[in-house]
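Example record for the data management plan.
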Amino acid sequence: MQQEWATEAERNNVFPLLGGYDPALPADANVAPRVSAALADPSGVKRRVFRPGGSPITDEALPKFGAGGTAVAHVEPGSNRNGVLCAVGDWTQGWALYLADGRLTCCINVAGEESYATSASAIDDAATALGFRIVVREGGFDIEVLVDGDVVGAGSGTRPIPVGMQQVGGTGLCVGYDRGFPVTDRYETPNTFTGTIRYVTMDADDASPGSPAARIAQALHED
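Corresponding structural encoding:
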């Protein structure tokens, strides 16, 4: 009976069966695109815009960064700007974009292993678009911090990026502050941003090409 079940499961494209959570799953080149397809928005929308002033935004509403992506905080010009621009998760897993001593830093925390990219110098008072980009590659990922679209710092990590790139159980996206345990012990929560944030954009890279119908069909086979 087990063999018959396995045969039918294979014929109906049920495999791989994915239960629970395993940060190492995307390391499997055969599994990663299918996991990404399952967690991607079936409508094909990869961009979200979030504004400050509310509660943390639930993980389910965030674009998935398992294949890479870009987050940018659009801010008002100003001097002496410091603090968290946006953050997801905590020191067990997540990411944070923040200013410390005027320098822009992104921390990517994968299962407690932290990787950083920091600008070489303090950002200009006139800068209004502060962000980061995750580029997923074989053997890990690269991080770039961005000021008004220009790369001003870079780093890398050796762990595979989890599909959702947030903490299991969900602490949500915080805009302009962090809460609970921080993503990195280089700051303490809430580390509220001292400037003014207009909005934050998140754009996920697409690892699951195909029509919406095909992506929905694929997602139905994944859990």
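Summary line stored alongside the record: The first strand starts at residue 47 and ends at 50.
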